[in-house]
Amino acid sequence: MVEIRGKRRAAVLPLAVVGLVLSLFPIVYLHVASVGELSPITHTISDYIFVDNGSGLLAVTSLTLAAASVGLLVALVRSGLPRRGPVAVLMGLWSAGLAVATVFPTDPTGTPTSFAGAVHRYAGAVMFASLPLAGWLISRTFISNTALRRFSVAAGITSVAFMVSHVSVVYPGSGAIVLGLFERVLFALLYGLLFALASAVLRREEAS
């Protein structure tokens, strides 16, 4: 019985990493398939629901990423992270935000904000704030890791820049619309943060 539990524990982290990798394929495909249809500079990733098969493929990415993040949280808790501490809450908010943003889609650009669009927007704000803060707390209080800390700080700064970039959409004519660019940079940093976290947990497990 102890051996079986040990194998299950050892399998959690690799499965989470596999989930992270698999979540990249649908969104990369959407970027390639929508060339000339959506601008990666002005359109957000959520806008891919308006292209062919975009809604389903984007849901696969979001939900797989959410599941992989939960797997990382489980691996962290099994490595000694407090189950009910702030990091667990923040990681949970990140994963829940991904799921909620999937269920409640964004509105087409230029249309009035619907209930679903408002929920999507606030879910995005919560998840983009939660993960960088979680990564920073982990690097400061649980696993001292330079890469994790740097990704967390960079993601936090970019998250703020992404939020600020919405001003040009809310108030047309106030500046160039570049929120799509900021969001893609942010997601690249968040993926880097998650992979750095997986690497840090692996090293901790190997050292224990």
TrEMBL record:
The protein's organism comes out as Saccharothrix carnea
Q: Does the keyword Metal-binding apply?
A: no
Q: What is this protein called?
A: Uncharacterized protein DUF998
Could you tell me the keywords of this UniProt record? Membrane, Transmembrane, Transmembrane helix
Q: What residues form the membrane-spanning segments?
A: 12-34, 54-75, 87-106, 118-139, 151-171, 177-202
Keyword Nucleotide-binding on entry: no
Query: What InterPro entries does the record tag this protein with?
Result: DUF998
